[in-house]
């Protein structure tokens, strides 16, 4: 199945200056600082709602507004976010919105198996079992094992624990081993949905890369890299126009790719530029050419700047 992403909403987000961000973090650290050890007489409590970062506080209302716009039109179950948001506050925010998070952990994330030993009979019950070594995971977690071009790819899936998260998480580890050099590399994906299969979790996360194509097209073809506006409204108009053209051009391309699968955006722009030149030239003629001749002129001129010209039959009707 061929997947494609479409820009739906563009919102400006102003980053907090690094110096101000650093001072704010220092103040929060000092405010939350307390003596080491557990306070006397304290009891176990459920994990409280986390403090959301300024970035998440900006994203939260945007996500809520987006879901409200889709209500009754399209049901969304998962939100895919990159590794920058692979943490508990992000997961909490997504769950509060009624969605499940799919994201990526850091390569050195501390993961633990749930404790499976016997209760000693006194004290709190153990929650965390053995720490997981993602490069040497147990065979019971292995879901796929494949060798191609000297690279062995193993995929593991397990419900594991992380001390930052309040509940178990669905973890998928992709481990690649170079059979000749024995060097290894791994990626740790996760979801808050424990029922999600490793195939879908992997596929859904890789779909995030489709967004990069939207930005590439907006920058390369539709002026996202070129506008010189600085005021908020003008910047919003320029951004939205660029991404609107990404969507609009993808719709226009469909009719041409039926007969010419390699028809590109450059071909599309050349086609309509040629049509505009012909239309403006014909206005200067004392007499408009006949229909069949006019069609031939349009087709010939529109092909001149194309990278992948397609010769379409001319209708004589």
Description:
The structure is a single chain. It contains eight helices and eight strands. It is an alpha+beta fold and 317 residues long. The protein folds into two domains: 151 residues, Transposase Inhibitor Protein From Tn5, Chain A, domain 1; 89 residues, no CATH class. The chain has a six-stranded mixed sheet with strand order 1-2-8-7-6-5, with helices on both faces. A two-stranded antiparallel sheet has the order 3-4. Helix 5 crosses helix 6 and helix 7 packs across helix 8. The chain is elongated. The two termini are 38 Å apart.
Question: Which descriptors would you attach to this protein?
Answer:
alpha+beta, 6-stranded mixed β-sheet, disordered C terminus, 8 strands, 37% helix, 317 residues, Transposase Inhibitor Protein From Tn5, Chain A, domain 1
CATH superfamily of the largest domain: Transposase Inhibitor Protein From Tn5, Chain A, domain 1
Work out the strand percent: 15-25%
Give the ordered list of helices and strands.
HHEHEEEEEEEHHHHH
Q: Which percent bin holds the helix content?
A: 25-40%
Structural class, from helix and strand content? alpha+beta
Mean pLDDT over all positions: 85
- Radius of gyration, in Å, reads 28 Å
Strand order of the largest sheet: 1-2-8-7-6-5
The coarse overall form would be elongated
């Amino acid at each position: 199945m061929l997947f494609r992403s479409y820009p739906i909403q563009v919102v400006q987000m102003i980053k907090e200056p690094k110096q101000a961000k650093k001072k704010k973090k220092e103040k929060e650290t000092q405010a939350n600082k307390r003596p080491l050890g557990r306070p006397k007489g304290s009891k176990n409590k459920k994990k409280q709602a986390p403090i959301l970062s300024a970035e998440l506080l900006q994203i939260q209302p945007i996500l809520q507004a987006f879901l409200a716009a889709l209500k009754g039109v399209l049901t969304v179950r998962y939100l895919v976010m990159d590794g920058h948001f692979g943490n508990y506050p992000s997961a909490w925010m997504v769950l509060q919105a009624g969605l499940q998070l799919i994201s990526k952990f850091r390569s050195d994330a501390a993961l633990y198996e749930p404790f499976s030993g016997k209760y000693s009979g006194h004290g709190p019950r153990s929650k965390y079992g053995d720490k997981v070594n993602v490069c040497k995971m147990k065979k019971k977690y292995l879901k796929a094992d494949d060798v191609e071009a000297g690279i062995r790819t193993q995929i593991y899936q397990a419900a594991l624990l992380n001390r930052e998260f309040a509940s178990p998480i669905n973890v998928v580890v992709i481990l690649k081993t170079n059979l000749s050099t024995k060097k290894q590399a791994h990626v740790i994906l996760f979801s808050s949905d424990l029922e999600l299969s490793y195939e879908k979790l992997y596929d859904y996360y890789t779909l995030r890369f489709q967004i990069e194509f939207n930005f590439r097209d907006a920058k390369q073809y539709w002026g996202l890299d070129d506008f010189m506006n600085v005021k908020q409204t003008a910047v919003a108009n320029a951004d939205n126009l660029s991404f609107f053209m990404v969507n609009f051009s993808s719709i226009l391309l469909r009719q041409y790719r039926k007969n010419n699968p390699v028809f590109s955006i450059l071909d599309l722009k050349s086609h309509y530029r040629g049509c505009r030149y012909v239309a403006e030239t014909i206005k200067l003629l004392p007499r408009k050419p006949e229909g069949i001749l006019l069609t031939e002129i349009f087709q010939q001129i529109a092909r001149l700047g194309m990278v992948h010209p397609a010769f379409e039959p001319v209708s004589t009707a």
